[in-house]
Design a protein that fits this description.
Elements (H helix, E strand, L loop, with lengths): L1 E2 L14 E9 L2 E2 L4 E4 L5 E3 L5 E6 L4 E5 L3 E2 L1 E4 L31 E3 L8 H5 L1 H4 E7 L2 E6 L5 E16 L11 E4 L2 E4 L17 E3 L12 E3 L6 E2 L12 E13 L5 E11 L8 E13 L4 E14 L7 H11 L27 H6 L4 E17 L2 E20 L10 E21 L4 E22 L13 E25 L7 E13 L6 E12 L6 E12 L38 E14 L3 E21 L2 E24 L4 E19 L5 E6 L4 E5 L6 E4 L11 E2 L12 E4 L5 E11 L2 E11 L2 E4 H9 L3 H6 L10 E2 L36 E3 L2 E12 L10 E15 L19 E2 L5 E12 L1
Parallel strand pairs: 1-8, 2-10, 38-43, 42-47
Antiparallel strand pairs: 2-3, 2-6, 4-5, 4-7, 7-9, 11-12, 13-19, 13-48, 14-15, 16-17, 16-18, 19-20, 20-21, 21-22, 22-23, 23-24, 24-25, 25-26, 26-27, 27-28, 28-29, 29-30, 30-31, 31-32, 32-33, 33-34, 34-40, 35-36, 36-37, 37-39, 40-41, 41-45, 42-44, 45-46, 46-48
Length: 919
């Protein structure tokens, strides 16, 4: 409390009661709201907006001046002016800031506050009062917080991204192959797919231009006009991307705490493929109201609209990346994608022009979602109740196609897929706390879900003009699924004090569910959870927990995983890939059972360091997997597995002073899993990838091991070499790698200096393998940097043994012009090579993100414009053993395909900024 020192300038004449006028101020700043009373009487008044006041007094009276947060001050009236001068006193009138009080004859001043705490500037009382009214001689003040308030927030975020970790290509050799001892150039008219031709320095343009080469057909230098070939880097095909996100929030709040919040967001951007774009509009309205002291309601209405013109719903992105990558370095795809006869302009009729695939793209996606939620909360004393009603409706429309003039397509097709999903739920949660030791909670939830899938598959076109949706064959799929569920949950907790007479707290929690579902076999499912958490074990800073849970989980009605369709095709059939099969949840579904045990330990040091360790063991039965047979796919509970893991976390929270602070979070996760059995006497189930290279559930192996072709080996694991001196490919597929890492470390740092904040995020993944099929195919086509550097290698001896068991001594040339091109080092094993050669270490260390932000802070007592501006970089740098692939960059944009790389969209490094303004 600081001492309120007042300096009064007043004159006293006589003893008769008269009107005394004065002023209260500090450093020339008036103080409104000070209470002034004549001691031992009921006569009181308050200072007005300008610090002025007037009160009737007698000589010798004492005035008591009081103000919240200040020491009360008493002032004695020793002199008054002659009474006759004050027989007629003008009324003091205030007209809401329009008219000030007359200049007082004396003033009251407040001394400077003691110390460094300036109470007056903290409360800024002059700005607190928004309105003054006068009624029956009294002045009434209205605080600004007694009005309705409008708050606005604008956010603008922009990011610019460029491709990184792209494959490296050879830039020396042209389209062509070896023939009769010579390496010859082959023109597009020959439909040559390989780039095992002559050195481009030996070729030039002729004067005879064509639709393939406007500069003139390519010929040997001795027949041309002296114009060297123009070369193109396939990596230049990819475009930089931009993403813009704009949003506005408006909140109207009443003095009682009720509020209405409205939000609108618009987002637009593109991916690295030319002409791609996506747009999203999202909006919501939220209303909160205090009905009474104990009762509150909240409603939320939201809408989302998303559109994407290149969705990869038919593997279109991967096909575009493939077509660009295999094109010879001297063929410019962007000069035109269509010939005069209407056919595709490509370097070979067996391959696609990426721009033609883009121009004819029909792989598009649109989705709309609307949802509504109503929530009522009641809380009084030890009881609380939450009633909730929610509704959601969504519609997802996908189209995809294989054009009649796409290379490798024998039967053109077009697909329209519409998925409609609705859900409605009503729930109630009641909780009662008997005391600080005992609490119980009961929840009941009624849910109704409906899913309708409509799909029309068009094929059998009489002519290209009938494409895409006028066909003689139309396969229709119309499936409706409904599910009614009732969930009942009862849980409670109990706290024991002084368990070991050392002030320990032991908290026991029990929870049990009984769930009904109309689509589950037997209809009923049970869940159970029990935990014990003891704090201040041995010392105050240590806590220990143990928990056991058992859950039965039913498969979702809505299953959009379409990427299992690729399992129908070999890698060599990649251009034919299409999504034509659906995974439908069976009517009498068997739930997936999960039993988990957790052991946790936490240590807090100096209230700034938290150390957490957790070990868990999980056993899962009836995990669902896709089962492909003939032209059908079944979503079936087939997999049983176990997993154990360890998680460790360090947190530090430090605010050294008001100007500087530092926080960190370091976490480590490691786990091991193993398929214990497969139902129906199976030993292996492929669930992602291709039919000849895929991820699998195999008994005795970790989840998702990579299976593919390898080299034939003898009992001593030696590679067996054929008569020509090359390793022999084994006809039986084998386990090649485990995509699961040994451990993953995340490291987050936050530095604060005054109004600046710097965040850095690192992650490190150690171990695991990835299949780099992209590299193998580029080798096959003669486009990779490896084939450019190694095609002249000769007299090379592969390590291994001959079929008779002796050490191999047969020397070979990687590319012998006297042999057909199909027999060189890379083409002899086919377009996907030997998968064993494509297995790479997935270890990486990444500076994931850097962000720097500035905020002008928040002043809760002033109407002040607040803003935050940030700059960030994502994927700053990556160190890894593989130079072009990244384990988190999954194939087909599906998490199931992590560990597989086949012409995935490139990884991006992003630079961006965001600005948030609040007022």
């Amino acid at each position: 409390m600081k001492l309120l020192l007042l300096l009064l300038f007043a004159s006293t004449f006589g003893f008769s009661q008269t009107l005394y006028k004065s002023n209260v101020s500090e450093n020339g700043m008036p103080i409104p709201g000070v209470t002034i009373c004549v001691k031992n009487t009921s006569r009181c008044t308050t200072s007005d907006f300008d610090g002025n006041y007037a009160i009737k007094v007698n000589k010798g009276d004492e005035l008591v001046l009081s103000y919240i947060g200040m020491t009360t001050k008493t002032i004695k009236i020793t002199n008054l002016p002659p009474q006759e001068n004050y027989e007629k006193v003008d009324r003091i009138v205030a007209n809401d800031y329009a008219e000030k009080l007359k200049k007082p004859i004396d003033s009251v001043q407040i001394s400077k506050p003691s110390g460094n705490f300036d109470l007056n500037s903290l409360f800024n009382l002059e700005n607190e009062i928004s309105k003054i009214t006068r009624k029956e001689g009294f002045y009434h003040f209205k605080n600004k917080y007694e009005h309705h308030k409008l708050a606005l927030e604008f956010n603008q975020e922009f990011s610019f991204s460029s491709p990184i970790r792209l494959p490296k290509y050879q830039d020396k050799f042209a389209q062509g192959r070896s023939q009769a001892g010579q390496i010859l150039y082959q023109s597009p008219e020959t439909n040559e797919i390989f780039s095992f031709g002559p050195n481009v320095s030996s070729l030039e343009y002729s004067g005879n231009n064509s639709e393939y080469y406007p500069q003139g057909n390519i010929v040997n230098q001795s027949f041309g006009n002296g114009n060297p070939l123009q070369l193109y880097n396939p990596n230049d095909f990819f475009q930089n991307t931009t993403d813009n996100k704009s949003s506005i929030n408006a909140v109207i709040q009443s003095p009682k705490g009720n509020f209405l919040k409205m939000n609108f967001l618009y987002k637009t951007g593109n991916i690295s493929i030319p002409t791609s774009r996506n747009n999203e509009i999202a909006t919501f309205v939220k209303y909160f109201r205090n009905i009474s002291q104990n009762s509150k309601i909240e409603t939320l209405l939201s809408y989302n609209d998303f559109e994407n013109n290149l969705s990869n719903s038919n593997f279109g992105i991967n096909k575009i990346v493939f077509a660009n990558a295999v094109t010879p370095i001297h063929f410019h795809n962007n000069l035109g994608s269509t010939l005069a006869n209407g056919f595709q302009r490509s370097y070979s009729a067996f391959e696609n022009n990426p721009y033609y695939l883009i121009d004819k793209n029909l792989d598009q996606n649109k989705s709309k979602t609307i949802s509504f939620n109503f929530n009522h909360r009641y809380q009084k004393n030890v009881n609380s109740n939450v009633a909730n009603t929610s509704f959601q409706s969504s519609e997802i429309t996908n189209t995809n196609a294989q054009n009649p003039f796409f290379a490798g397509i024998v039967a053109p097709n077009y697909n329209e897929r519409i998925e409609k999903f609705k859900s409605f739920s009503v729930s109630d949660v009641f909780s009662h706390r008997f005391n600080y030791k005992v609490a119980i909670e009961s929840k009941i939830d009624f849910r109704l879900q409906e899913r309708r899938l409509e799909r029309i598959f068009f094929n059998g076109f009489a002519s290209p003009n009938d494409f895409p949706n006028t066909s003689s064959i139309q396969n229709k799929l119309d499936v409706s699924q409904e599910r009614f569920e009732v969930f009942y949950n009862l849980n409670g907790s109990y706290v024991f004090d002084n368990v070991f007479s050392n002030y320990e707290d032991l908290t026991l929690k029990l929870s049990s569910d009984l769930n009904y579902s109309s689509t589950v076999k037997g209809s009923l499912m049970t869940n159970f959870f029990a935990s014990a958490d003891i704090r201040r074990l041995f010392i105050d800073e240590i806590s220990f927990s143990i928990s056991q849970s058992f859950n039965q989980v039913e498969p979702s009605l809505q299953n959009n995983n379409l990427n299992f369709n690729s399992l129908q095709y070999q890698v060599s059939q990649f251009k034919q890939l299409q999504n034509n099969l659906e995974l439908l949840t069976p009517k009498d579904a068997i739930p997936t059972n999960e039993a988990t045990t957790n052991l946790g330990l936490m240590y807090n040091f100096d209230y700034r360091w938290n150390f957490k360790a957790n070990y868990y063991y999980k056993n899962v039965e009836n995990l669902y997997a896709p089962i492909l047979t003939a032209n059908e796919a079944n979503w079936s509970p087939e997999v049983n597995y176990k997993q154990n893991g360890f998680e460790f976390e360090i947190e530090r929270f430090s605010n050294f002073d008001s100007n500087f602070g530092y926080n960190l979070n370091l976490n480590l996760t490691t786990f091991r899993n193993e398929v214990t059995s497969l139902n129906n006497n199976q030993t292996q189930i492929a669930f992602a990838g291709f039919s000849d290279v895929n991820k699998n559930y195999i008994v005795g192996q970790p989840l998702g091991v990579i299976v593919g072709t390898g080299y034939l080996r003898d009992a001593n694991h030696n590679v067996i070499i054929d008569e020509q001196g090359f390793p022999i490919e084994d006809s039986q597929p084998k386990v090649l790698g485990n995509p699961n890492p040994d451990f993953v470390v995340g490291f987050f740092n936050s530095f604060r200096y005054k109004k600046f904040t710097l965040n850095l995020s690192f992650d490190w993944s150690q171990g695991g393998e990835i299949w780099n099929g992209t590299q193998q195919t580029l080798n096959y086509y003669g486009k990779s940097e490896t084939t450019g550097n190694q095609r002249n290698i000769s007299n090379y001896i592969f390590e291994g043994v001959t079929q008779s068991g002796v050490s191999n001594t047969q020397a070979v040339s990687f590319y012998d012009a006297n042999l057909p091109v199909e027999q060189n080092r890379w083409t002899r094993y086919g377009i996907d090579g030997v998968a064993e050669d494509a297995i790479e270490d997935a270890t990486y260390f990444r500076l994931n993100s850097i962000s720097l932000s500035y905020s002008n802070g928040v002043d809760y007592l002033k109407d002040k414009l607040n803003f935050t501006i940030s700059f960030f970089v994502n994927n700053v740098f990556i160190l890894s053993k593989s130079k072009s692939v990244f384990s988190n960059n999954s194939m087909f944009n599906s998490i199931e395909t992590n560990g597989l790389e086949y012409f995935n969209a490139p990884m991006m490094r992003s630079f961006g900024s965001s600005l948030t303004i609040k007022f």
